[in-house]
Write a structure and sequence with these properties.
Layout: H1 6-13, H2 20-49, E1 54-58, E2 61-65, H3 68-76, H4 81-87, H5 104-115, H6 125-139
Antiparallel strand pairs: 1-2
Helix pairs in contact: 3-5
């Protein structure tokens, strides 16, 4: 098996002669590299489905995210009475009313649609959640807000 150094690869790029065995080896190495790349992408996608609920600031934006599997699992085991009455067999009065999540991607898509659904006033559940969080931050003494002075400039 030939050692594929940068120099040897440069020879191939220049079109210099290589043996059929070397070409086969190079193709095998490339296929393994592609498979490794594809497997890494699949692993990242699977890991993304398992991400916990989190919010973070980065690149000048607030990002809120949760993996689809985590979202569905959290909803199906939620202790909140409305969800528990739907998904928890111990809380359902009529077993015929019990629901199970059978397509996580479709359910997550529907949840996303509901989060972004505008009311008559143009607000969404997401906007209301952010507004409530903003009020909480202000009430907790956020250092990012200040009262304007009489000239309209902030004191800080």
């Amino acid at each position: 098996m030939a050692e594929w150094t940068q120099e040897r690869i440069a020879c191939v790029r220049r079109g210099e002669a290589v043996t059929l065995a070397e070409w086969q080896e190079l193709l095998d190495l490339a296929a393994r590299g592609l498979a490794a790349t594809e497997n890494a992408a699949k692993a990242r996608a699977l890991n993304n489905k398992e991400l916990p609920l989190r919010a973070k600031i980065g690149d000048g934006r607030l990002s809120i995210g949760i993996g689809v599997n985590t979202l569905c699992r959290a909803i199906s085991i939620s202790p909140h009475s409305d969800l528990a009455r739907i998904f928890d067999p111990a809380m359902v009065d009529d077993p015929g009313d019990l629901l199970a999540i059978v397509d996580e991607a479709a359910f997550a898509t529907d949840i996303c649609r509901a989060i972004n659904q505008e009311d008559e006033d143009g607000s969404t559940p997401l906007i209301r959640m952010i507004e409530a969080a903003a009020m909480d931050a202000i009430e907790q003494g956020s250092e990012g807000v200040d009262a304007p002075n009489k000239t309209g400039e902030s004191d800080g």
